[in-house]
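Title: Prediction job returns without error message
Component: structure pipeline
Severity: low
Priority: P3
Assignee: unassigned

Description:
Job completed but the reporter wants confirmation the result is attached to the right record. Sequence as submitted:
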Amino acid sequence: MLLSLFDNLLSPKPQPVKLQEETSFQQQFEIEVNGENVPVRILFEQRFNNRVTVNKNGILIRISERQQKEEQRKNIDNLLKWAKQKLGDKPELMDSLPQRKYVNGEILQVGDYEFVISIFYHDSAKSTAKIFKNNIVLSLPKGLTNDAEANACSYLVAKCLCKFFLPVVTERIHELNNRYFRKDVKHITMKHATSFWGHCSRHGNIVISVRLLFAPAKVVDYVLIHELAHLVHHDHSPRFWKVVEQVMPDYQNAEKHLKDFSHKYYL
């Protein structure tokens, strides 16, 4: 049912409602949650990431226009299912994954690492970022709106953290793989994903969300073990969970942690 809904959503008909920018548009519909009709608004925007917010006004999903339609479809599917579950299971979580407002000089704690956010403004139109010692240095164009600046900072910080932590995560994945699985891992990447913690393809390509880095080390290990277990069984069958349990007998605690604290791990 959801897939057919998204097929209509991403098709050229009906014509989308135009927003301020010519390339941005929105779609609106309703879904039923616990007997109530909940309005859903999906915005396709010139942004770098995807985001979902659940509050008294309904579900708001922001999707990057930079993605291919199939990737948009998958992200909408995942974010809508996530939001629907949150509304049904935990209505007290009124806002999830808010846009972080970065402040010059603030400390960003990522696992055991601390980074100082340093923001500079310039006259050019390009936004850049780099990690220098323990500083994440953000260079932004002057005159950005608050929303545009927050979006740019979120994207740039995520990009820096992905580059900084990829060798660390890669080393840990290979360590766990050599110890417990001994399977062929093809390629490891990190990205600012809001709809999943990790993903493993049938070809052995593993993607880890940079948001996971805010979780405790054991929870991070659980996600890495979870994805490596997909190299044994590429599903979520009882056989798959048995493999996970053999490596981490208390994995359900990590699962619960991610469900309970997912809304606190955002960029």
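Comment from assignee: result matches the submitted record. The chain has two domains: 2-89, 107-264.
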